[in-house]
């Protein structure tokens, strides 16, 4: 099992606090000034028996491949991967209504991380990303997700098998597409999977034709589309509004 590296104070704190995967070791910049997050990392690491090594900044730069690490890197177990079917089965066992996001080949790590963050905030029960295309579960994705990569169940499988499995399980598949019905005219209640297309080109025709419904976000100012992570947040908010989450 290949270990992964988390880069940055917040991702390391989130991983230690949430406790879903093992942290093997932590490196901390020798010159880092004392501050609450560093103190929390040391406290959590000591409680979990995780060794903390103080080292030079240039070594951290090498370990992080030049990415932003803010003086802290951790070596951790990889994220446990699911299948779309397994996510739905777990939802049934827990008495939860499935709400799954399929991110079809997002190219930018910041977008995938932001989608994960919104997914956690709106109670998404699982995220599906392709096995080969698009961004993977990198340290950047973990940092931008603000802990969501630790909590949201994630599957890596082809979009077509995932959609087929979801439909068999009675989950309605809704694609985000500019040619879809305007948001506000689409009933989003009940078990649902939201399919997001790649930045720029959106949903591929073959994925769109496998969706039960297509939904669009009406926009002003001759704007063609929103950033995919922003669109995900808008659509998930309206889904939860229709579910009655925000009813006084």
Features:
4-stranded mixed beta sheet, 11 strands, Alpha/beta knot, 10 helices, 60s Ribosomal Protein L30, Chain: A, alpha/beta, 38% helix
Number of domains: 2
Mean pLDDT: 95
**CATH level-two architecture of the largest domain:** 3-Layer(aba) Sandwich
Evaluate the radius of gyration. 19 Å
Note the total helix count: 10
- SSE pattern: EHEHEHEEHEHEHHEHEEHEH
The amount of helix comes to: 25-40%
Assign the CATH class of the largest domain: Alpha Beta
Q: How many individual β-strands?
A: 11
- Spatial gap, N to C terminus: 48 Å
Structural commentary:
The protein is of the alpha/beta class. It folds into two domains: 4-76, 60s Ribosomal Protein L30, Chain: A, CATH 3.30.1330.30; 81-243, SPOUT methyltransferase, trefoil knot domain (Alpha/beta knot, 3-Layer(aba) Sandwich). The protein is 38% helix and 22% strand. Strand 2 (23-29), helix 2 and strand 3 (52-55) form a beta-alpha-beta unit. Helix 5 packs parallel to helix 10.
List the helices and strands and how they pair.
Blueprint: E1 4-7, H1 9-18, E2 23-29, H2 36-48, E3 52-55, H3 57-63, E4 72-76, E5 81-82, H4 84-94, E6 99-103, H5 109-121, E7 126-129, H6 139-145, H7 148-151, E8 154-156, H8 159-168, E9 172-182, E10 192-196, H9 205-208, E11 213-216, H10 228-243
Parallel strand pairs: 2-3, 5-8, 6-7, 6-10, 7-8, 9-10, 9-11
Antiparallel strand pairs: 1-4, 2-4
